[in-house]
Amino acid sequence: MRFPHEWWMSVVSHPIFLVGLGGAIGSNARYWTGVAVRQWLGTVAFPWGTFLVNVLGSFLLGLSVILLAERGTPAGKQWHLLLGTGFCGGFTTFSTFEVETFSLMRTGKFGWALVYVLTSVLAGFLAVWVGILLYEETD
Q1: Which of 82, 103, 123, 138 is the most buried (most CB within 10 A)?
Q2: Residue 58, class by beta-carbon neighbours within 10 Å (0-12 exposed, 13-18 middle, 19+ buried)?
Q3: Can you give the pTM of this predicted structure?
């Protein structure tokens, strides 16, 4: 018979639990980041909150991949499920990015849509790169 502690540890270390918990925290972080940016900037044409979340999420995912998934211990792989897959998956907002791009185009703001797509993709890529390079520099 398994002791309650062993059972509990098998539950909290299971990928479903780790990804789900991380996703719930990441989704809340995304929402509240958007609220904070809207309160700070007010209504603007460019979706800065989503842009910030995508770049920051890309940076954090880059760090998580290199620190936890690739170079980490077995426990690091569990942390990557929680932080990389779960938190970053809930935090980053690519689907929202797509809808906002469509909305910009639908309202005739084709220039802003192009700027949004190009800067989001380039800044997100650079953020992943910087996240990985920061760790590799300390190796």
Answers
A1: 82
A2: buried
A3: 0.75
